């Protein structure tokens, strides 16, 4: 199973990095697969820890892909690090082993501490649309523009019907990046 989460890591200087990722869950292990080069990868290799944040504020997912990375943090209890203050839950993880790869190494981790902060109320269609659009934005250079546009068009239907202020704000950040990408392609 793949869970869409926010992974927080920190370097030796204590600088926290937040990254949206699809993390694989197999039995009691989390497999984090960052692409090279990656701040997340560098931080986990250095600290041997990561924090998996479960969050329903889709602005954080969109924000990380659009240069908005300043989100309130709280200090973890069992590993050196931080979790998102708005997380509904978080898992503090230690690195167990690495399957190295030139492009995308597999980092096998296990949770050493788990905390539930608030109940999950479910996602509405707009939150889903923002998550999917964020994934598209993360792959702008990998996917054809036609595919991206057709997906955005479809996702906007659910967004229009169910979005609140947070979802609209996150969506607009992502669409601005898509529009910028389109403009760059037409000028090339």
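^ Assign residues to that structure.
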């Amino acid at each position: 199973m793949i869970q869409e989460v926010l992974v927080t890591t920190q370097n030796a200087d204590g600088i926290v990095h937040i990254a949206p990722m699809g993390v694989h869950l197999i039995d009691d292990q989390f497999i984090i697969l960052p692409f090279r080069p990656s701040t997340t990868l560098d931080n986990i290799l250095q600290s041997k820890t990561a924090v998996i944040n479960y969050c329903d504020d889709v602005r954080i997912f969109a924000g990380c892909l659009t240069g908005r990375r300043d989100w309130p943090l709280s200090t973890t209890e069992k590993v050196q690090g931080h979790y998102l203050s708005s997380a509904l839950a978080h898992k503090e993880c230690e690195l167990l082993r690495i399957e190295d790869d030139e492009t995308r190494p597999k980092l096998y981790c296990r949770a050493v501490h788990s905390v539930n902060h608030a109940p999950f109320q479910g996602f509405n269609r707009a939150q889903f649309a923002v998550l999917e659009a964020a994934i598209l934005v993360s792959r702008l250079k990998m996917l054809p523009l036609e595919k991206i546009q057709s997906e955005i068009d479809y996702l906007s239907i659910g967004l229009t019907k169910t979005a609140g202020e947070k979802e609209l704000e996150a969506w607009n950040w992502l669409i601005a990046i898509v529009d910028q990408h389109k403009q760059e392609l037409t000028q090339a």
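Strands lie at 2-10, 16-26, 29-32, 49-54, 73-75, 82-84, 89-99, 106-116.
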